[in-house]
Write a structure and sequence with these properties.
Elements: E1 2-6, E2 10-17, E3 30-36, H1 38-48, E4 53-59, H2 61-74, E5 77-78, E6 81-82, E7 88-95, E8 100-104, H3 112-125, E9 131-135, H4 146-156, E10 160-164, H5 167-173, E11 180-181, H6 185-192, H7 199-207, E12 216-220, E13 226-230, E14 234-237, H8 250-264, H9 268-283, H10 293-299
Parallel strand pairs: 1-4, 1-9, 2-7, 4-5, 4-6, 9-10, 10-11, 11-12
Antiparallel strand pairs: 2-3, 7-8, 12-13, 13-14
Helix pairs in contact: 1-8, 4-5, 8-9, 9-10
Bound molecules: adenosine-5'-triphosphate and magnesium ion.
């Protein structure tokens, strides 16, 4: 079983209208809400391969219910911590002329009590878990060292960890030595504190994480492909050639694929090749985390 950790999930709402008139009443022609956020994408990919998943994190309000129901429909077991605040909704307003307006909610504030309840629930999930995939940003109220703490709990329970986050949560998270980290190039640059252009520079910065006990680093570089470093080897995988229509969630797909490979015992060449094929297949559809299996197998 894989535990997917989503501390800051979001509902993605898409609203359409002819043209927006500022300061007026605007009638929408359609409004569609779907479960979003990185951990939801990871769960979605894993469930398409029928991997047992326990999804954890914080959920509250109507948005929380929507996300829980979507995950349950995918066949994931949900062990979320209910919060008093409301799970955020990110709204995209699309006008007929193609203009897009984004409205991002601040999201809930997690109380100390809710945080303590979550840690208890998380520990309970680790009994049957071989791997935890932790993705995304942190809501207000959650300390920046949370991924470090969760990694320690996992390792005490014999559960491996994949970490995919950014900023301070990443900086503090790597210090607990997760088994695998998946930064994109920007995230690694911000961690290293310097620009990284060449593959050598990128690999060098990734190797610096070994001193914290990180087992391996998969640096995703968008259409430049994927770079893997561990203590034994360095693997460069070109991006698989596809007509990309939406690359959002490609990194989440890589994290999910590497998770499956870790549990499978794939060698790293196979794991990286599968991850690149799966991410490229994800890029061929508008929906995040939706894998057209035929495309995936063909690319592989
Ligand atoms: N245009 C593309 N064509 C083929 N493969 C792609 C393309 N864009 C991305 N990929 C694949 O997906 C992987 C992950 O993409 P990327 O580096 O954009 O992740 P990311 O920035 O973490 O994305 P997100 O956080 O939105 O999931 C890349 O390493 C590459 O293998
Ligand atoms: Mg990413």
């Amino acid at each position: 079983m894989i535990v997917t950790v989503g501390l800051n999930p979001a509902v993605d709402k898409t609203c359409r209208l002819k043209a927006m008139a500022q300061g007026e009443v605007n009638r929408l022609t359609s409004a569609v809400s779907v479960a979003g956020g990185k951990a939801v994408n990871v769960t979605k990919v894993l469930r398409q391969f029928h991997i047992p998943v326990a999804a954890v994190g914080f959920l509250g309000g109507a948005g929380g219910t929507l996300i829980r129901e979507a995950l349950e429909e995918m066949g994931a077991e949900c062990y979320f911590t209910e919060i008093r605040g409301e799970t955020r909704t990110n709204t995209n307003v699309l006008e007929e002329n193609g203009r897009v307006t984004e409205l991002l909610e601040p999201g809930p504030v997690i109380s100390e009590k809710e945080m303590a309840r979550f840690l208890k629930q998380f520990s309970g999930c680790l009994e049957n878990a071989g791997l935890a995939v932790m993705s995304g940003s942190l809501p207000e109220g959650v300390p920046a060292d949370v991924y470090a703490k969760l990694t320690e709990l996992c390792h005490m329970a014999g559960c491996r960890v994949i970490l995919d986050t950014s900023g301070e949560a990443l900086r503090q998270g790597v210090q607990a030595g997760p088994d695998l980290v998946k930064p994109n190039r920007k995230e690694l640059e911000s961690l290293a504190g310097r620009p990284l252009e060449s593959l050598e520079e990128i690999a060098g910065a990734a190797r610096e994480l070994f001193s914290w006990g990180v087992g391996g680093v998969a640096v995703s570089m968008g259409s430049r492909g994927l770079l893997w470093v561990d203590r034994e080897k360095t693997i460069y995988q070109e991006a698989k050639p596809v007509r990309a229509v939406n690359t959002v969630g490609c990194g989440d797909t890589v994290a999910a694929s590497l998770g499956m490979s870790l549990l499978n015992g794939d060698d790293m060449e196979t794991a990286i090749s599968k991850a690149a094929a799966l991410a490229a297949a994800n890029a061929t559809t508008m929906e995040n985390g939706k894998i057209p299996m035929e495309t995936y197998l063909k690319l592989l």
